[in-house]
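User: Sequence recovery, please. Input:
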């Protein structure tokens, strides 16, 4: 349903011939992906990027690897275990106020600090023995892993989880956030749920791949984000 309308709308509104990712999709480690995925929900992306950069600066880490490159070797990555040790060595208030310099919560109602949600996200990865980019195959389509992430306060929608996988290299997902929602609403004149959005775009990309065979869902998501940011 609506996949024809969305694919036509994408062709009319987006520069699909030149679709490509930006440097923000080439983080140097999984902790960077977690921070971005959790903090980016509900706030301007510049604020999210600032949090990521402050974290890197504090620990003297490279934020990004080379644009377009494969995953770094594991000995070149800041691991999930190191990240959790970082949290254990400092108080959460210090990390929130002095490192991230951001006190946003996952929700205005009973939400926890996003800095806390980041730690809980990392702990679930550690539980499933995910330490580096190369380990992620263990939890792709793992229902138990997804359930445990969604159990974290503020993560029930699964939007941050999808975005985490995208930032970590998954080409077959979208981030069904407000940018995607508004784009779809403008195209079809109707607001769809998060679930409906996640089902809609895989069908739309199949139609788009007829004329744009190399286009991925991740690239399409980014083109929509750019379009909405400039609207």
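Assistant: Recovered sequence (231 residues):
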């Amino acid at each position: 349903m609506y996949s024809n309308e969305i694919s036509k709308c994408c062709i009319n509104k987006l520069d699909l011939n030149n679709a490509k990712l930006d440097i923000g999709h080439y983080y140097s480690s999984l902790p960077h992906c977690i921070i971005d995925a959790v903090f980016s929900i509900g706030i301007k992306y510049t604020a999210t990027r600032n949090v990521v950069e402050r974290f890197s600066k504090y620990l003297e880490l490279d934020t990004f690897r080379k644009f377009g490159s494969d995953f770094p070797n594991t000995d070149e990555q800041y691991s999930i275990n190191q990240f959790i040790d970082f949290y254990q060595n400092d108080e959460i208030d210090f990390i929130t106020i002095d490192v991230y310099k951001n006190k946003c919560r996952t929700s205005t109602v009973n939400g926890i600090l996003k800095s806390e949600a980041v730690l809980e996200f990392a702990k679930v990865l550690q539980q499933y023995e995910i330490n580096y980019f190369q380990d992620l195959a263990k939890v792709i389509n793992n229902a138990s892993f997804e359930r445990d992430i969604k159990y974290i306060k503020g993560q029930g929608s699964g939007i941050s989880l999808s975005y985490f996988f995208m930032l970590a290299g998954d080409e077959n997902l979208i981030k069904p956030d407000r940018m995607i929602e508004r784009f779809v609403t403008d195209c079809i004149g109707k607001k769809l749920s998060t679930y409906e959005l996640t089902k809609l775009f895989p069908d739309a990309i199949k139609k788009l791949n007829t004329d744009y065979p190399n286009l991925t869902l991740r690239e399409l998501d980014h083109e929509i984000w750019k379009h909405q940011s400039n609207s």
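Residues 45-59 form the longest helix (15 residues).
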